[in-house]
Amino acid sequence: SLSPAPTDRQNSKSLSLWAGGQAAMESPTSAASRVDFYGFLDRMRRPEAADLFRSIKSFLASLSLDEPSAEADGARVQAFFAEMEAAIRGHPLWADATHQEIDHALEGLEKYIMTKLFDRTFAASPEDAAADAEVSDKIGLLQRFVRPHHLDIPKVLNNEASWLIAVKELQKINSFKSPWEKLLCMMSCCQVINNLLLNVSMTNDRTPSGADEFLPILIYITIKASFLL
Questions:
Q1: CATH topology of domain 8-121
Q2: Which candidate among 34, 73, 100, 183 keeps its CA 20 to 30 Å from the CA of 127?
Q3: 3-state SS assignment for residue 19
């Protein structure tokens, strides 16, 4: 049977402890996005949100009773997200919310759920762990000899300072547990590369770069970042 529903005080304490742990990590999001996310947590701490919090706790408890299965777990999580989206959109706490506020609430929900399910979701099986180790070994071999010219990266785009920033952005990916935050790390890395290409095209009177120059740099950055991780 499931655990008893938490009281409002337990609800608030649980969210506060979890939020504190998240705040200890450097966030890849903007300050405005962090404010919006904590706004979602503030709403979830209110007594009126007790029904939503009970649903979340019940779902996590029920999932923990079954053996991990990537396919089955994925389907159940997606179905739960769909149910919770409908519940949030129809909830009095979000009655006057904008589309952006609803989106932030759903992002906050995903972050909370996937953080709780991280150990069950990522490399949970021995097969996944073995596959990750194999890929890591191969990337380590590539890192020993691959240089920019091997990927046909023009010398004018060789910018170690910008590449290091991109590497650091990508390396943040292991500091976060939700798919949304991991995706933001990847987007930040890509933005650094895109800015480099744009700056070079403007200062050297070159035709704006496209995927033919973006992709090799991204591959090189990924090799360097993965090896250092």
A1: Serum Albumin; Chain A, Domain 1 (1.10.246)
A2: 183
A3: helix
For the segment 20-49, what is each residue's pLDDT rounded down to a tens digit? 444 444 444 444 455 566 777 888 889 999
Quick one: DSSP state of residue 2? P
Alpha-carbon distance values, 14 to 44, 61, 170, 203 (Å): 11, 15, 30, 52
Residue type for 122, please? Answer: F
pTM: 0.74
**Domain residue spans of the chain:** 8-121, 126-228
**In this structure, what token pair is assigned to residue 188?**
């930040």
Core vs surface per residue 68-107: b (16+ CB within 10 A) or e: eeeeebeeebeebeeebeeebeebeebeebeeebeebbbb
Residues 6+ apart with CB under 8 A from 207: 201
Residues 6+ apart with CB under 8 A from 122: 128, 177
Count of residues for the chain? 229
